[in-house]
User: Fold this.
Amino acid sequence: MPAVTGPGTDYRAICELKARYFRFLDTKDWSGLAECLTADAVIAADGARYADRAAFIDAMRKILADVRTVHHGPEITFSAPDKADGIWGMDDYLVFPSTGEPVGFRGYGHYHEAYVRAEGEWRISQLTLTRIAMDPLAGGLPSALEPADDGATS
Assistant:
């Protein structure tokens, strides 16, 4: 990971370290998760104690193989004084108009964004939403999620 060059660098670097930890855990990127920990890290969670990084990664790989996890924390890196990139954990809950059971979903994933500062204000210049999962509500997914020829590009 590139060094953080924005204000409050140590505080921000630790926040972004934890955000990467969350994302790597959620996306099951075990090598990325390992890079977040020291080789001799001691981890205690949910009544279990792991003596080092290797033991923890091995256990998570087995325990979470078929488990969906969702964590949150922003990762922001500055590539220039007026340019930055960010990854944000997200979950959303959408309920669409319906005459019966609720139609919609609870979704989970990450926003991958690029930012530029123009005229003294930060703005999003690029945004991509990647989803880990979408859990349909009782009435199912909305027809609005069906592909449409609306001029949008992918």
